[in-house]
Write a structure and sequence with these properties.
The complex is a heterotrimer of chains A (352), B (275) and C (321).
Chain A lengths: L3 E10 L2 E11 L4 E5 L6 H9 L6 E6 L2 E2 L10 E4 L11 H11 L4 H14 L15 H13 L5 E5 L7 H18 L2 E5 L3 H7 L2 E6 L2 E6 L1 H6 L4 H6 L6 E7 L5 E4 L2 E4 L8 E7 L4 E4 L3 E10 L3 E7 L5 E7 L9 E6 L5 E3 L10
Parallel strand pairs in A: 3-8, 3-9, 6-7, 7-8
Antiparallel strand pairs in A: 1-2, 1-4, 4-5, 9-10, 11-12, 11-14, 12-13, 14-20, 15-19, 16-17, 16-19, 17-18
Chain B lengths: L6 H26 L3 H6 L13 H8 L2 H33 L5 H13 L6 H10 L6 H26 L2 H9 L4 H12 L1 H17 L2 H6 L8 H11 L4 H35 L1
Chain C lengths: L18 H33 L2 E3 L5 E3 L3 H8 L1 H36 L7 H13 L2 H12 L5 H8 L16 H13 L1 H12 L3 H9 L4 H28 L4 H7 L12 H10 L8 H31 L4
Antiparallel strand pairs in C: 1-2
Helix pairs in contact in C: 1-13, 2-3, 3-7, 3-8, 3-10, 4-8, 5-7, 5-11, 8-10, 9-10, 10-13, 12-13
The chains are: A alpha+beta (352), B mainly alpha (275), C mainly alpha (321).
Bound molecules: adenosine-5'-triphosphate and magnesium ion.
Chain lengths: 352, 275, 321
């Protein structure tokens, strides 16, 4: 296995820059997940690591070797595509063996590796079938098998579960976690799905518009998002954010007409943004005044959608039945220790 | 009047037209098996034991050249299809997959031939073929037909190659295949249905063509069956048995092939036309 | 970390391949098609056009003489009479296809695309059958059927009490071209039928349902909903008909020989070209004039295609889905 280092990577299509100065380290054996909104450049970054896309400038090294100018096959990586990309005209066995044949691996060893992968992925009964005779989940496993037999230093996954239905997605997610432990592989994994990202990742990379916004452990991103973008992107439902004014002493912030005490002293004055998650606030006697617009009752929990006088939307998660009606005037109070503060640029305030 | 078009009227029109389409063909085949007297006296009766007479066929096949003409046509058609598909798929692949400066210009250059018939260059083709010492050879015919059919082949195959998912080619690159191997081991096998369509499009006009065999290989036993039958008909114009048998000899194999491949053909025509 | 290759110049999209290797790949894949096509299609066409500006001298050499060949073709009565005759005949040939072949093709396609129709495949397959056969075969077959000697056509007309209509249609100046055109129509009606049929199938059923809900009957739905949507296909069919008709040769040659008799009444551009280029009983072959006629055919076809591309197709596309 090996680590991956990406330094000052830029990538443009013509005049459009889709990756802007990416710097990233993936430690040996780590499971790194790339997340971000659609079109932010996740696939492009992954494909650049694979060598499927030429990069405009910067460097990529795998296991200490600069691979920026090497062909995909020479980088000792394996890629699992969203569409699986199984060769439709070959059976499962040949799909897995195909690349090895061209790499000149001896026949006996090819057979060993294919059998081993088939065993790990429980594909043995399916070896003679064509891709079209397989279910989505089985195709997915073949695609992973095809990556495993190459004994790559790094596995690259591009939204591998997005074509599966919900139940299968959970199974396969667990399966991938198990494989990661078993193979002790370095994995770079792209997904749209927060749950996948939070459960699988050692480290999450949040991207936006071709830039890396934050890199960190899943809970780090959840509890201490580095900026407003990450704060809003991580966590579901998304964090409430409101405009606020610091009182100058750094003890409280004025929000929607009320003064909200701050957990720790903050230096400076002026306009900031405060944020708190729907699960980290409550409806009570004190807090930000708002009017209830909609109440969703899911049984175990309920969601209260409310709006402040100046039009900002608030979402509060409540245990059980909220027992509120539309139009009710309420006050929303963030839980202590769960208030996030961001400066005018959207960057987390120092010391919070 | 809200009543839908009567089903009877629809079937009447279609059946009538079908009869019109088939009648001449059936008439010729039927009479080719009959004695001369029966051909003229009872042209509409099918061949029966009492009017059966294969004399026409013995004349046609007695002219031993017919077998040669068949072989020539088969050689030319198969050769043309093979080269058109191979060269066409290769060019279509390069034009759709690779970026290079003259890509669009080259694609336009190749597509001119879809609309401009190659026949108009016949004057120079003859000159060229004789300069290359290829007059009265099947090679000349094959080369001309390949040139004639390439533009449409490239056009159709490009559309199909574009439909092959990009991931599949890239999986090949990750697997360490060279660009050549990606084409021959992944793309070409996946193009089979498209190639069947192109093959049908290519086959019919090549097999049926009269112009180029007349110009490039009119004598010396290098005639194709279409030209051979035309020459035979000219010779035996008054021998009705021979004429009908010669016509049937040319019709029947095409009909057999057509019945076998009609599904493929019509599907090809329909898919090619949707665009 | 060092940035090893700042500002690399990427000429192509395949990582890890040298420009030389990339060029070899391109040449390998493109050269065969481009060579054969250029040598046997583009070059002859250009060479033919160029030849049309040269004429043969008495010593056998060729000398450039500008548009003199074209002037001769269009003004010298020994050339212009056959040329205009062939041109007018070719237009008639084309008009008959447009007025007979394409409407019949449209009718058949419309019937075939009706929602519940039994034997659809059988009809389609059988009606398309003549299109598969060689023009030589078709030509000869019809010659036999129309021959007074065999009398099949006469027999049929008599069966309907129309025996007096029968005549040696192929042998008479006034009817030869029309007869041959109709035979060609009979053979090729399958092409417009299939193309239009396909276009009709592509129209979503909901559109027709919507029209039915709006109270249109089947005829009205066809004329007001389907027909406007398949105009682009009809445009394509028309230009294909045009190109094929002005390039036609086989049928007339097979039925009437290079002289396209009687008295050149069935002569079209293709047969004129063949006769002039190769010569015949009446005159010697003439390469320059042959090339001139081929160039004229090229220009005519080009005009047709251009009119289609720039006038018809543009206007029609707007109404397509
Ligand atoms: N071949 C290309 N040419 C031009 N622009 C491209 C090309 N491929 C991708 N892009 C652009 O690059 C940007 C990043 O695309 P990319 O596929 O990496 O996004 P992504 O983060 O994977 O999105 P998704 O989550 O939808 O898969 C997009 O804005 C896209 O439009
Ligand atoms: Mg993507």
């Amino acid at each position: 296995m090996a680590d991956v280092k990406i330094g000052n990577l830029h990538k443009s299509y013509g005049t459009v820059e889709v990756l802007k100065d990416i710097n990233l380290q993936v430690e040996d054996g780590a499971f790194v997940v790339l997340v971000g909104p659609s079109g932010c450049g996740k696939s492009t970054l992954l494909r650049s690591i694979a060598g499927l896309e030429p990069i405009t400038s910067g460097a990529i090294s795998i296991g200490g070797r600069n691979v920026s100018d090497l062909a995909p096959a020479q980088r000792e990586i394996a890629m699992v595509f969203q569409s699986y990309a199984l060769y439709p005209h070959m059976n499962v066995e040949n799909n897995m063996a195909f690349g090895l044949k061209f790499a000149g691996v001896p026949k006996a060893e090819i057979a060993d590796r294919v059998n081993e992968a088939a065993r790990i992925l429980q594909l043995e009964p399916l070896l003679k079938r064509r891709p079209r005779e397989l279910s989505g989940g089985q195709r997915q496993r073949v695609a992973i098998g095809r990556a495993i037999v190459r004994h790559p230093k790094v596995f690259l996954f591009d939204e591998p579960l997005s074509n599966l239905d919900a139940a299968l997605r959970i199974n396969t997610r667990v399966e991938i976690a198990r494989l990661h432990k078993l193979l002790k592989a370095t994995i770079v994994y792209v997904t749209h799905d927060q749950v996948e990202a939070m459960t699988l990742a050692d480290k999450i990379v949040v991207m936006n518009k071709g830039r890396v916004e934050q890199v960190g452990k899943p809970l780090e991103l959840y509890y201490r998002p580095a900026n407003l973008f990450v704060a809003r992107f991580i966590g579901s439902p998304a964090m409430n954010t409101l405009a606020a004014t610091l009182d100058g002493k750094g003890k409280a912030a004025a929000v929607a007409g009320v003064s909200l005490p701050l957990p720790a002293a903050v230096s400076g004055t002026g306009e900031i943004t405060i944020g708190f998650r729907p699960e980290h606030c409550s409806i009570g006697k004190t807090g930000i005044p708002a009017r209830v617009e909609l109440v969703e009752r899911l049984g175990e929990t309920g969601y209260v959608h409310a709006r402040t006088a100046d039009g900002a939307a608030l979402l509060v998660e409540v245990k059980g039945d909220p027992g509120l009606a539309q139009g009710a005037e309420v006050r929303v109070a963030p839980a202590a220790g769960h208030l996030h503060l961001f400066d005018g640029e959207g960057v987390r305030l120092a010391g919070t | 009047m809200r009543k839908p078009v009567s089903a009877f009227a629809v079937h009447a029109v279609l059946a009538l037209y079908t009869a019109l389409a088939l009648f001449p063909i059936i008439l010729v085949i039927m009479n080719s098996f009959k004695a001369k007297r029966a051909i003229f006296n009872t042209p509409l009766t099918p061949p029966m034991p009492w009017n059966f007479d294969p004399i026409g066929y013995s004349k046609v096949f007695g002219d031993s050249a017919i077998a040669t003409y068949y072989m020539n046509s088969i050689t030319v058609t198969v050769g043309t299809i093979f080269l058109t598909l191979l060269f066409g798929a290769m060019a279509a692949w390069a034009l759709t997959e690779y970026k290079f400066r003259w890509n669009t210009a080259l694609a336009i250059f190749l597509s001119i031939g879809i609309m401009v018939p190659i026949r108009l260059g016949s004057v120079s083709i003859i000159q060229l073929v004789s300069d290359l010492n290829l007059i009265n050879t099947l090679t000349a015919l094959i080369l001309v037909y390949v040139a004639q059919n390439l533009p449409l082949a490239v056009f159709i195959l490009s559309e199909f190659i574009q439909q092959i998912p990009r991931d599949l080619r890239e999986a090949g690159r990750c697997d360490g295949l060279s660009e050549y191997n990606i084409f021959f081991y992944i793309i070409l096998p996946l193009l089979r249905p498209a190639m069947a369509t192109v093959a049908v499009f290519t086959m019919i006009p090549v097999w049926n063509d009269l112009w180029f065999p007349l110009l490039l290989a009119p004598t010396g036993g290098k005639q194709t069956i279409t030209l051979g039958v035309q020459q035979f008909l000219g010779q035996y114009i008054t021998d009705w048995n021979a004429v009908l048998a010669a016509l049937s000899t040319a019709i029947i194999p095409v009909l057999v092939l057509y019945v076998i491949f009609s599904r493929q053909l019509i599907r090809g025509l329909t898919s090619g036309a949707v665009k | 970390m060092e940035t090893a290759s700042q500002g690399r110049v990427q000429q192509h999209g395949i990582v890890g391949m040298s420009p030389g290797a990339y060029a070899r790949v391109l040449i390998f894949f493109l050269a065969p098609a481009v060579l054969v096509y250029t040598l046997f299609s583009v070059y002859p066409l250009l060479d033919t056009i160029i030849s049309s500006f040269y004429s043969k001298q008495n010593d056998g050499s060729y000398v450039y003489n500008g548009v003199a060949n074209f002037v001769t073709l269009l003004t010298d009565p020994t050339w212009s009479a056959p040329f205009w005759n062939a041109f007018i005949n070719n237009i008639k040939f084309f008009l008959i296809h447009m007025l007979v072949q394409n409407p019949i093709g449209l009718l058949l396609a419309a019937l075939l695309s009706l929602p519940v129709l039994r034997f659809r495949t059988a009809y389609r397959t059988l009606i398309f059958m003549p299109t598969m056969l060689s023009v030589v075969i078709i030509g000869f077959t019809w010659q036999l059927i129309l021959s007074p000697l065999w009398g099949i056509a006469k027999m049929f007309l008599q069966a309907f009490g129309l025996g007096f209509l029968f005549g040696p249609w192929l042998g008479e100046e006034s009817t030869a071209l029309i007869t041959i055109s109709l035979i060609s129509v009979w053979q090729f009606v399958g092409i417009p039928m299939i193309l239009i049929y396909t276009a009709l199938l592509a129209i979503p059923d909901e559109l027709i349902d919507a029209a039915t809900v709006d109270g249109l009957n089947q005829f009205q739905a066809f004329f007001h909903v389907k027909l406007p949507l398949i105009w682009p296909t009809i445009g394509l069919v028309s230009v294909l008909t045009f190109v094929n008709n002005f390039n036609a040769f086989d049928l007339i040659y097979a039925m009437k020989g290079a002289l396209a008799g009687p008295n050149f009444s069935a002569d079209i551009m293709g047969t004129l070209f063949y006769r002039v280029f190769f010569g015949n009983q009446l005159q010697l072959g003439d390469v320059s004039m042959g090339a001139t006629i081929a160039t004229m055919m090229f220009l005519i076809i080009l005009c047709g295609v251009m009119i289609y591309l720039f006038l018809i197709q543009r206007r029609l596309q707007r109404y397509a889905f």
